[in-house]
User: Fold these one by one.
Assistant:
Number 1:
Amino acid sequence: NEPFVALTTAFTLDGTASEIAENAVLETPIHLCNIGVAEEGVALSSPRTLVVAGKNSQIHFIESFHALADTAYLTNAVTEVVVEENATVEHIKVQLESTAAFHIATSKIHQAAKSGFSSVNVDLGGAIVRNNLNVVLDDERCEAHLYGFFRAAGSQLIDNHTFIDQAKPNCESNELYKGILDNRAKGVFNGKVMVRQDAQKTNAFQENKCLLLTDDAVMYAKPQLEIFADDVKCSHGATVGQLDEDARFYLRARGISEAKADSILRHAFAIDIFDRIEVEAVRRKLES
C-alpha cells in the first residue's frame, strides 16, 4: 500500500536475492554496492533486494549507495530481510549519493523467534533523503537494535521514519539516531514503537539526538510510543542542541585550533553510532 514501494515494483527489471543456509555463519560480509550513473537528464534507479537468513545463521549485510557524478537522479530502493528462528543479521546501510540526488529507501524486516536484528543507517549525501525502516518482531524472544547517523549541510533534507511493531511478548528493541546539521540543512526523525495487546514483558527504548552547527539549521523530532499492553518497560526522548562552548574552550585553551576542536567534538558526538558497527573496515571508513 506504499506508493514508492509500488513504483519500485513497477520498474524493477531484476534484483538481488541472498538466501543463507541454516546454521551457516558467514565470516565475510555480503556487500551490495549500488552505483548511480545519470549521464543524460534525470534517471530513475529501482534496486530491489531480498535477504533470507536461515535458522541459526549469522550474517553481516552491507548496502552502500554511491554516485559517479554530482547530478540529479532518483534512487528508489526496497530491501526486504527475513530473519528466521535464532538467526542474527547486522544490516549496514551507507548512503553517499550525489548532493543533487534524491534517495528514497524502504526496508522491511520480519523476525522469527529468538532472532536478532541490528541496523546501522548512515546518510552523508543526497539533496532529499527519506528512509522508511519497518521492523516486525513476530515471535517471542526477539531483539531489534536500530542505530542511525546523518550529516547534512547546505540545503539538504534527511528524513528518517522508523516503525517497530512489537507484536509478541518477551521482546526487546533499542533505537538511537543522531544527526549533525550545518548551514540551512533540515533533519527529521519520526520513530514509532507499537506494543500490541498480547506483547507483555516488552522492553523498548528510543532516543534521538541532534547537533545544530548554525542558527539556520532545523531539526524536527517526533518519537512515539503506542502501547496496548500493561506489563511493559518503554521510554523515549529527544534532544536538540549546539556544540558545548565549555568543551570547545577547554580544547582551545590547550592550543587546539577552532576547526580541529569542532572536529573533535563532532566525532565524539557521532562515535556512539559508529561503535555499533561490527564490521571493522566499514567502521574505520565512516569514522574518517
Note: The radius of gyration is 19 Å.
Number 2:
Amino acid sequence: MDENNFGNDIVTLSDDDGKEYSFEILDAIETDSGRYLAMLPYYTDPQEKLDDSGELVLVKAFEDENGEEYFEDIADDDEYETVADLFIDRLQDSFEIDEE
C-alpha cells in the first residue's frame, strides 16, 4: 500500500461458494498466537450500511507458501475471546462497543 494513501483499508474476501464481501480493516494485533484483524462490513450503498448490525468481524491472518496473505475465522472459542478482549480494549475509545 502507498504510504501517502490515507484512505480506508478495504479488503474483499470470498466465502466457500465464491460470494464476495468487502470489509474495512479497523485494527490489527500481533500476538504470540498470530496476527489478527478487526473489520467491519464495508458498503458503498448507504442503506446497506444503515441496515447492517455493525458487528465486528475478527479473523486470523496467515501467509501461504507464495507470501500471499489470507484470512480464516478464529475457530477456537478461547482464542476468539482472548483476541476479542484485546480489540475491545484498543477500540473502545474510538467506537461504541456493546459487549454481549
Note: The beta strands are 10-14, 20-31, 34-41, 57-63, 69-73.
Number 3:
Amino acid sequence: GDVIESRTYAFTYVTDLGEEGDISPASNVVDVKADSTVSLTGITEPPAGSFVTKKRIYRSNTGSSDTKFQFVAEIDAATETYTDSIASGDLGETLSTEGFVAPPADMRGLIDLPGGIMAGFTGKTLCFSEPWHPYAWPKKYQLTTNYDIVGLGRIGTVLVVLTSATVYLVQCADPASASMDSFDDIAPCVSKRGIVSSRWGVIYPSTQGLVSVTLSGVNLITRDLFTRREWDKLKPETIHGYIHADKYIGFHHPDSGGKGFIVDPVEPTARLVDISLAAVAGYVRPEDDLCLAV
C-alpha cells in the first residue's frame, strides 16, 4: 500500500538466565511503506564475559496517542543482522526493561526488602533494584544523602540508612516513589558489621555507644552502661554484632585482645554480660536457633 511509517529500531541483551537489560540507543528514523521489509545491520555483539546469549529487537510503533517500542524478534547474541517484515499490527509486547542497568561496580551493603526489592550503596548514593529483578538497578531510583553511607538496616518496609553523621529513614514499598527523611540527632555509625535489624529496631555501634533506631527516633541504649571513655576503649569500629534471643551480642577487638558483650535492647541496665571469647565472625542459625561464633 501507500501508507508510510516512520520507524526506529533498538535492541536489548538477554542473559542465559533470561535477564533482559536496558535498551540500546535507537537507530536513525527511516520512512518506509507499511508492507515493506527493512534490513537491519550493526546489532552489536555483547561484551565478552557478560553471559548474554540472546538479543531482542524492538521497533517503534505509533498509536493514536503515543509511540512505544514493541517486540520484533529474538536472535542469537552473535548475530548482527536481521530482516524485519512484520506488520505493525503483529508486533509483540511493549518494551518493559528501559533503564534496567547493572548496579555501580563499587556498590556494597546489599540488603533485601519486602516486595522483591534490594538496596545497596556507594559513597553517598543509595541504590534500589527493580522489584523482583535483582540484576536491574535503574538510576532513576537512586537517592543521595548528605554524608557517606556506612550501612543499611530495615524496619518492615522502611529502610534505615546509617551514615557517618546522621540517620535516614526511607519509605520504599515501591522504589519509584521512595522518599527519604532524616533525624536531627547526630549519631554516626562506626561499624557496618555491627548493624543488626531486630524487632526492637535497627541497632548499631556509634561514636557515643550502642544506638537503636525506631520509626519514632534514635535512642542511645548504653547511656547508663558506658561512659564515652569506656566505650572508646572497646574500639567500637571493630564491633560485629548479632541479634539472638532478643539480645544484642557484640564482639570487638580492643588493645587488650578480643572480647564481647551481651546487652538487652529493651532493658539495657538490667544486665550487661561480658564475653571473654575472641570471635572474628559469627551468624545466627535459624534451624536450631543458635548463635555461632568463631
Note: The first helix runs from residue 228 to 233.
Number 4:
Amino acid sequence: QLGVIFSFVTDRAGGFSNADIEALHRLLPLFALGVKATTMRSVGRGLLSTYLGQDPAERVLRGTIFRGDVERVDAVLFYADLRGFTHLADTMPGKDLVRMLDDYFDCMARPVVGRGGEILKFMGDGLLATFGIGGTSRAEACRLALDAANEALATVAALNAARGAAGQPFAGLDLALHIGELLYGNVGTDARLDFTVIGPAVNEASRIELLCKSLGYNLLISERFAAAAGDSRRRLSSVGRHRLRGVREDTELFTLAAGG
C-alpha cells in the first residue's frame, strides 16, 4: 500500500494553534491525494519506459493505445544478435545463461541508449533499436549508430576476453545497420498490443545480420546506410555485392574499415 507521512514544525512561540492544527487536518487528505496521483503517474511512466522504451512510453501516455495507431517514420535500424547462443542455451544452467545474456544485453544496449537511440525490442538473444531522424540529419543518425555499433563490438570483445580468461563460455556479436521508412506504432490483437516497428526495412536488416556469419564479419552495413552516412562514409569498406533472401537484386554491403 502507498502511504504518505507528514511532519510539520514551527518556530512560533507556543507552537501551532488549535486553528492551525484543524486547518492541517482538513488540508492533508487533499494534499496526500495530490501527492499520490503525482507519484503514481511517475511510477507508471517509469514502468512503461522500462518495458516499452522512452518514446513508446510517452506516446502511450499521450493516448496512442489503439490497434492500428501507426505512423511512418524514417530511422536508422540497429539489429543485433548473438552468434553461437543456441548451443550455449542447450548446455548451460538456466540461471547462468540468464546472467550471461544480461551482461551481453548491457554491452549492446548501453552504447545505443547513450547516443539517444531507442531500444524497441529484445528478441531472444538479440535486440532491435532505432536512431530517429526527426530531430537530426540522416548523416548524424548514421554516425551515432555507427559509433554505437563500434562500441558494442569492442565491449563484447572485452567481455569475451574476461569470460575466456575465467574459463567461462562466451558468444560473438553480429550487427546490421540499415536505414529506411518504418511503420511505428501499435500492432497486435484486441486484447494484447505491441509497440514496435514493421516494414521491409526491418526485414532487410534482419537478413543482412544473417549474412554476418557466412561472410565472416561481425558488422554489416547496407548500401542505403552508406549512401546516407555523409562524412562517416569514409569509415566504411565495401565487402562486395550479395543477395538478401527475398530481395530480387544484389545489394552492396559494407563493414567498418580498419581504424574506423
Note: The helical segments are 18-52, 54-61, 85-91, 94-113, 138-165, 200-215, 223-228.
